[in-house]
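Work package 3, deliverable 3.1, input record:
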Amino acid sequence: MQTQQINHKNFYFPPGGILIWIIIFLELLTFGIALIAMFYYGNQDLEGFNSSRLKLNTTYGMLNTLFLLTSGYFMAVSVTALKKGDKRNFNKLLFYTVLFGILFLCLKSLEYYEKLSEGIGIAYNTFFTFYWMLTLFHVIHVVVGLVILISVYFGIRKETSNTTIEDVEASAAFWHMCDLIWIMLFPVIYLIF
Amino acid sequence: MQKTVTTTWIILIILTISSALIFKLDGSYVTTVILILSALKFLGISFQFMDMNKAHIAWKTIIISFITVFVMGLLLIVA
Protein backbone atom coordinates (compact mmCIF):
# COMPACT_ATOMS: atom_id res chain seq x y z
CA MET A 1 0.00 0.00 0.00
CA GLN A 2 1.50 3.32 -1.08
CA THR A 3 0.82 6.20 1.28
CA GLN A 4 3.04 8.83 -0.39
CA GLN A 5 1.60 12.31 0.19
CA ILE A 6 0.60 14.37 -2.87
CA ASN A 7 0.84 18.16 -3.12
CA HIS A 8 -2.83 19.06 -3.66
CA LYS A 9 -1.94 22.74 -4.18
CA ASN A 10 -0.94 21.75 -7.71
CA PHE A 11 -3.92 22.44 -10.02
CA TYR A 12 -3.57 19.01 -11.70
CA PHE A 13 -3.70 17.10 -8.39
CA PRO A 14 -6.87 18.00 -6.45
CA PRO A 15 -7.76 15.50 -3.67
CA GLY A 16 -8.87 12.33 -5.49
CA GLY A 17 -7.32 13.36 -8.81
CA ILE A 18 -8.37 15.63 -11.67
CA LEU A 19 -10.40 12.98 -13.53
CA ILE A 20 -12.79 12.32 -10.63
CA TRP A 21 -13.28 16.09 -10.24
CA ILE A 22 -14.18 16.46 -13.92
CA ILE A 23 -16.79 13.70 -13.38
CA ILE A 24 -18.03 15.40 -10.19
CA PHE A 25 -18.54 18.74 -11.93
CA LEU A 26 -20.31 17.12 -14.89
CA GLU A 27 -22.64 15.29 -12.47
CA LEU A 28 -23.30 18.42 -10.41
CA LEU A 29 -23.99 20.38 -13.58
CA THR A 30 -26.45 17.73 -14.83
CA PHE A 31 -28.36 17.58 -11.54
CA GLY A 32 -28.17 21.37 -11.15
CA ILE A 33 -29.75 22.01 -14.56
CA ALA A 34 -32.47 19.38 -13.91
CA LEU A 35 -33.29 20.93 -10.52
CA ILE A 36 -33.48 24.43 -12.00
CA ALA A 37 -35.83 23.01 -14.69
CA MET A 38 -37.95 21.40 -11.95
CA PHE A 39 -38.05 24.69 -10.05
CA TYR A 40 -39.04 26.53 -13.24
CA TYR A 41 -41.93 24.11 -13.95
CA GLY A 42 -42.93 24.31 -10.27
CA ASN A 43 -43.16 28.07 -10.54
CA GLN A 44 -45.53 27.67 -13.53
CA ASP A 45 -47.78 25.26 -11.60
CA LEU A 46 -47.46 26.26 -7.94
CA GLU A 47 -50.69 24.59 -6.82
CA GLY A 48 -49.93 21.26 -8.53
CA PHE A 49 -46.37 21.12 -7.21
CA ASN A 50 -47.43 22.15 -3.69
CA SER A 51 -50.09 19.46 -3.43
CA SER A 52 -47.65 16.87 -4.82
CA ARG A 53 -44.95 17.87 -2.37
CA LEU A 54 -47.39 17.36 0.52
CA LYS A 55 -47.50 13.69 -0.51
CA LEU A 56 -43.78 13.37 0.33
CA ASN A 57 -42.53 12.49 3.81
CA THR A 58 -40.13 15.28 4.85
CA THR A 59 -38.95 13.24 7.86
CA TYR A 60 -37.71 10.51 5.50
CA GLY A 61 -35.88 13.15 3.46
CA MET A 62 -34.27 14.64 6.58
CA LEU A 63 -33.27 11.22 7.96
CA ASN A 64 -31.75 10.28 4.61
CA THR A 65 -29.75 13.54 4.68
CA LEU A 66 -28.49 12.66 8.18
CA PHE A 67 -27.54 9.13 7.04
CA LEU A 68 -25.56 10.42 4.07
CA LEU A 69 -23.85 13.17 6.09
CA THR A 70 -22.84 10.64 8.77
CA SER A 71 -21.61 8.25 6.10
CA GLY A 72 -19.60 11.11 4.55
CA TYR A 73 -18.16 11.94 7.97
CA PHE A 74 -16.93 8.36 8.48
CA MET A 75 -15.49 8.41 4.96
CA ALA A 76 -13.53 11.61 5.67
CA VAL A 77 -12.09 10.32 8.98
CA SER A 78 -11.28 6.94 7.43
CA VAL A 79 -9.12 8.61 4.74
CA THR A 80 -7.32 10.55 7.51
CA ALA A 81 -6.71 7.26 9.37
CA LEU A 82 -5.28 5.66 6.23
CA LYS A 83 -2.95 8.61 5.63
CA LYS A 84 -1.61 8.01 9.15
CA GLY A 85 -1.02 4.36 8.18
CA ASP A 86 -3.72 3.02 10.52
CA LYS A 87 -5.24 0.39 8.19
CA ARG A 88 -7.22 -1.33 10.95
CA ASN A 89 -9.03 1.89 11.93
CA PHE A 90 -9.51 2.72 8.25
CA ASN A 91 -11.31 -0.59 7.66
CA LYS A 92 -13.53 -0.09 10.73
CA LEU A 93 -14.48 3.46 9.68
CA LEU A 94 -15.05 2.38 6.07
CA PHE A 95 -17.41 -0.30 7.37
CA TYR A 96 -19.50 2.41 9.11
CA THR A 97 -19.43 4.48 5.89
CA VAL A 98 -20.93 1.57 3.96
CA LEU A 99 -23.40 0.81 6.77
CA PHE A 100 -24.88 4.33 6.71
CA GLY A 101 -24.99 4.19 2.90
CA ILE A 102 -27.02 0.98 3.15
CA LEU A 103 -29.33 2.62 5.72
CA PHE A 104 -29.93 5.41 3.19
CA LEU A 105 -30.90 2.84 0.55
CA CYS A 106 -33.20 0.99 2.98
CA LEU A 107 -35.11 4.16 3.89
CA LYS A 108 -35.27 5.21 0.23
CA SER A 109 -36.67 1.78 -0.67
CA LEU A 110 -39.34 2.17 2.03
CA GLU A 111 -40.24 5.59 0.64
CA TYR A 112 -40.45 4.21 -2.91
CA TYR A 113 -42.56 1.27 -1.71
CA GLU A 114 -45.03 3.65 -0.02
CA LYS A 115 -45.28 5.83 -3.12
CA LEU A 116 -45.84 2.86 -5.43
CA SER A 117 -48.45 1.44 -3.02
CA GLU A 118 -50.34 4.73 -3.31
CA GLY A 119 -50.18 4.42 -7.09
CA ILE A 120 -47.73 7.32 -7.44
CA GLY A 121 -45.43 6.35 -10.28
CA ILE A 122 -43.20 8.24 -12.70
CA ALA A 123 -46.13 9.27 -14.94
CA TYR A 124 -48.35 10.51 -12.05
CA ASN A 125 -47.66 14.21 -12.78
CA THR A 126 -44.77 16.56 -13.66
CA PHE A 127 -43.59 16.86 -10.04
CA PHE A 128 -43.37 13.10 -9.59
CA THR A 129 -41.69 12.65 -12.98
CA PHE A 130 -38.90 14.90 -11.70
CA TYR A 131 -39.01 13.21 -8.27
CA TRP A 132 -38.56 9.68 -9.66
CA MET A 133 -36.02 10.64 -12.33
CA LEU A 134 -33.79 12.67 -10.02
CA THR A 135 -33.95 10.49 -6.91
CA LEU A 136 -33.56 7.22 -8.85
CA PHE A 137 -30.60 8.65 -10.76
CA HIS A 138 -29.09 9.61 -7.39
CA VAL A 139 -29.80 6.15 -5.94
CA ILE A 140 -27.90 4.60 -8.88
CA HIS A 141 -24.91 6.76 -7.93
CA VAL A 142 -25.18 5.63 -4.30
CA VAL A 143 -25.26 1.96 -5.38
CA VAL A 144 -22.20 2.48 -7.62
CA GLY A 145 -20.46 4.31 -4.75
CA LEU A 146 -21.18 1.43 -2.36
CA VAL A 147 -19.79 -1.10 -4.85
CA ILE A 148 -16.59 0.99 -5.13
CA LEU A 149 -16.27 1.30 -1.32
CA ILE A 150 -16.87 -2.42 -0.76
CA SER A 151 -14.20 -3.26 -3.35
CA VAL A 152 -11.79 -0.85 -1.58
CA TYR A 153 -12.72 -2.44 1.80
CA PHE A 154 -11.83 -5.96 0.64
CA GLY A 155 -8.98 -4.84 -1.65
CA ILE A 156 -7.04 -3.04 1.06
CA ARG A 157 -7.22 -6.01 3.46
CA LYS A 158 -4.99 -8.04 1.15
CA GLU A 159 -1.37 -8.34 2.25
CA THR A 160 -0.16 -7.58 -1.30
CA SER A 161 -2.63 -4.77 -1.93
CA ASN A 162 -1.60 -2.41 -4.75
CA THR A 163 -4.28 0.16 -3.83
CA THR A 164 -2.76 3.64 -3.56
CA ILE A 165 -3.90 6.53 -1.37
CA GLU A 166 -4.99 8.24 -4.61
CA ASP A 167 -7.36 5.35 -5.36
CA VAL A 168 -8.89 5.65 -1.90
CA GLU A 169 -9.17 9.44 -2.22
CA ALA A 170 -10.86 9.09 -5.61
CA SER A 171 -13.35 6.58 -4.16
CA ALA A 172 -13.99 8.95 -1.24
CA ALA A 173 -14.52 11.86 -3.64
CA PHE A 174 -17.10 9.83 -5.58
CA TRP A 175 -18.88 8.96 -2.32
CA HIS A 176 -18.90 12.61 -1.18
CA MET A 177 -20.31 13.55 -4.60
CA CYS A 178 -23.41 11.52 -3.65
CA ASP A 179 -23.70 13.73 -0.53
CA LEU A 180 -23.32 16.90 -2.62
CA ILE A 181 -26.02 15.81 -5.08
CA TRP A 182 -28.39 14.91 -2.24
CA ILE A 183 -27.73 18.28 -0.55
CA MET A 184 -28.96 19.91 -3.76
CA LEU A 185 -31.94 17.54 -4.19
CA PHE A 186 -33.26 17.61 -0.61
CA PRO A 187 -34.36 21.28 -0.38
CA VAL A 188 -35.71 21.53 -3.93
CA ILE A 189 -37.72 18.29 -3.84
CA TYR A 190 -38.80 18.08 -0.18
CA LEU A 191 -38.77 21.58 1.28
CA ILE A 192 -39.24 24.53 -1.07
CA PHE A 193 -42.49 25.93 -2.60
CA MET B 1 -7.78 17.46 11.36
CA GLN B 2 -10.24 14.93 12.80
CA LYS B 3 -11.52 17.54 15.28
CA THR B 4 -12.32 19.94 12.41
CA VAL B 5 -14.12 17.20 10.46
CA THR B 6 -16.14 16.24 13.56
CA THR B 7 -17.08 19.89 14.18
CA THR B 8 -18.12 20.21 10.51
CA TRP B 9 -20.27 17.05 10.79
CA ILE B 10 -22.05 18.43 13.91
CA ILE B 11 -22.67 21.76 12.15
CA LEU B 12 -24.02 19.93 9.06
CA ILE B 13 -26.42 17.93 11.26
CA ILE B 14 -27.62 21.13 12.98
CA LEU B 15 -28.10 22.89 9.62
CA THR B 16 -30.10 19.92 8.25
CA ILE B 17 -32.44 19.83 11.25
CA SER B 18 -32.75 23.64 11.11
CA SER B 19 -33.77 23.45 7.42
CA ALA B 20 -36.47 20.89 8.23
CA LEU B 21 -37.80 23.13 11.04
CA ILE B 22 -37.64 26.41 9.07
CA PHE B 23 -39.59 24.70 6.26
CA LYS B 24 -42.62 24.57 8.60
CA LEU B 25 -42.62 28.36 9.05
CA ASP B 26 -44.59 30.75 6.87
CA GLY B 27 -42.96 33.67 5.12
CA SER B 28 -41.32 34.74 1.90
CA TYR B 29 -37.84 34.43 3.44
CA VAL B 30 -38.17 30.65 4.03
CA THR B 31 -37.01 29.65 0.52
CA THR B 32 -34.00 31.96 0.67
CA VAL B 33 -32.96 30.75 4.14
CA ILE B 34 -33.30 27.05 3.20
CA LEU B 35 -31.24 27.56 0.03
CA ILE B 36 -28.52 29.46 1.90
CA LEU B 37 -28.35 26.69 4.54
CA SER B 38 -28.03 24.11 1.75
CA ALA B 39 -25.25 26.12 0.11
CA LEU B 40 -23.40 26.22 3.45
CA LYS B 41 -23.78 22.43 3.78
CA PHE B 42 -22.51 22.00 0.21
CA LEU B 43 -19.42 24.09 1.00
CA GLY B 44 -18.87 22.28 4.32
CA ILE B 45 -18.79 18.90 2.58
CA SER B 46 -16.56 20.02 -0.29
CA PHE B 47 -14.06 21.97 1.79
CA GLN B 48 -13.84 19.82 4.94
CA PHE B 49 -14.89 16.28 3.95
CA MET B 50 -13.40 16.37 0.43
CA ASP B 51 -10.28 18.29 1.52
CA MET B 52 -10.78 20.99 -1.10
CA ASN B 53 -9.41 23.53 1.39
CA LYS B 54 -6.02 21.98 0.48
CA ALA B 55 -6.61 22.25 -3.29
CA HIS B 56 -5.49 24.90 -5.79
CA ILE B 57 -7.44 28.16 -5.56
CA ALA B 58 -8.96 27.55 -9.02
CA TRP B 59 -10.82 24.48 -7.70
CA LYS B 60 -12.08 26.42 -4.70
CA THR B 61 -13.29 29.20 -7.00
CA ILE B 62 -15.10 26.72 -9.29
CA ILE B 63 -16.92 25.11 -6.33
CA ILE B 64 -17.98 28.42 -4.80
CA SER B 65 -19.04 29.77 -8.23
CA PHE B 66 -21.07 26.65 -8.99
CA ILE B 67 -23.13 26.70 -5.78
CA THR B 68 -23.58 30.48 -6.00
CA VAL B 69 -24.89 30.27 -9.58
CA PHE B 70 -27.17 27.34 -8.63
CA VAL B 71 -28.71 29.14 -5.63
CA MET B 72 -28.99 32.45 -7.49
CA GLY B 73 -30.66 30.66 -10.42
CA LEU B 74 -33.31 29.18 -8.12
CA LEU B 75 -33.85 32.49 -6.33
CA LEU B 76 -34.24 34.33 -9.65
CA ILE B 77 -37.01 31.92 -10.67
CA VAL B 78 -38.85 32.55 -7.38
CA ALA B 79 -38.44 36.34 -7.63
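The mean pLDDT of chain B is 92.
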